[in-house]
């Protein structure tokens, strides 16, 4: 091909050169198209039938299969009575917040009878992610897996499995979830907890009327299986285990990890975990089970969802064996398990941890109470970051930022809490009022950010999984008690910390994360416990545009839903 220039004056050779260039180009990225119809369907679980919101009548919804480098077009048409928006959880959406999906943050919702095309590229990411409704509590039934396969010819950095299986962990309410939430809000109290946990939409045989609502996967002796596990539950961190079988963790939140073997995993709402399982046990039927982790005395749905791993040729009459799950309040297991997570940090998949920090942020997580004359006790339970309860706007924050619409939000979210106190000391039950506001934090383009999330004992300590949209971050440190800025940073892991999009802040403890703010836009950050999000445990970062041509927010698509 190097001689093409010598023949450029001869049209025939010029054509040959063009064709040659065309044929030797690497394979271009594909365009994957999906149609998502938001439809109400009657579904029966636990002896109760009810109408639920679904995508394409499926519960859970369809899996989105893409390859790293693909462009994805998903046309969402809303036939349900609720407004709808869908978030592609963990996809970075570089410069393209318009496709991120959280209602009133990056878009106004898709109204009944309308459509919107989520148009995005999957760049520099591969692994298990997921999608879910990002408005009200509709993600109780509107969710599904995203499987991003590596580029053609790029193997996994672990033994190639014989088969892959998606495992989506969820929650089920017998009553209409939106009504349950309305009732709770009216009283100023938490809504009724779920009636069951589910595995791939099915509670399993430990629940009534669930013989046919049990997920089963067949395995063959000697084969290796990759389980892509997603916690799509609304409010519960979950333990997951398989009787008689160890699991090797190889990826979390679509980032490869140093492999380690464990009898159980802990997975918070919003997180994904890929594990390898080898079918090398005595052929039989084995339960896979999921049950909540809760290490404070709060009431939760503590029932166990079960599915079946069944060796080929074993009849259904064989009773399955139950796994040993950690105790529901096993804090030691939780801390030890999360401590084993490390980025692979190989030459092909490096961990580019920011070593110097431009901006230090310290956010306290608190529960609170605000006056509510119509509520049951004259007060409403609430939640806050740095004592600010986030108020959702009526216009998308990204639109307000992009079009410079005044009066929608301010950028004076404080870098620190208004007052310092013994955050994790005795429970604080006085002065629990919070400030209600739509306050965001402005971040300079390409600056490095360290954010310490500190749990507090306002009302009660509790574990909180935090999700940042538009970014992955490195979990450089975590600890129990109050963060000590003079001692704790010396213990940070700046070599191979886990890289995630959702991280658990331990009960009565803290977590430190770092990221480089190289994705301009308005990016939501919130607790992924739906209850706390709805109470105001959320904020957003306004990341400014850079100076380069490809460092500013892309223009909005023509079909962006109007507010």
Automatic annotation (TrEMBL):
Keyword Cytoplasm attached: no
Oxidoreductase listed as a keyword: yes
Plastocyanin-like domain: residues covered: 38-152, 164-313, 412-546
Cofactor note: Binds 4 Cu cations per monomer.
Keywords, in A-Z order: Apoplast, Copper, Glycoprotein, Lignin degradation, Metal-binding, Oxidoreductase, Repeat, Secreted, Signal
Main location: secreted
Record EC number: 1.10.3.2
Subcellular location: Secreted, Extracellular space, Apoplast
Residues making up the signal peptide according to the UniProt record: 1-29
Gene Ontology BP annotations: lignin catabolic process
Top-rank EC class of the record's enzyme: oxidoreductase
Catalytic activity of the protein: 4 hydroquinone + O2 = 4 benzosemiquinone + 2 H2O
InterPro entries assigned: Cu-oxidase-like_N, Cu-oxidase_2nd, Cu-oxidase_C, Cu-oxidase_fam, Cu_oxidase_CS, Cu_oxidase_Cu_BS, Cupredoxin, CuRO_1_LCC
A GO term from the CC aspect: apoplast
Cofactor: Cu cation
Task of the protein: Lignin degradation and detoxification of lignin-derived products.
Entry's family note: Belongs to the multicopper oxidase family.
The protein, known as: Laccase
Provenance organism: Juglans regia
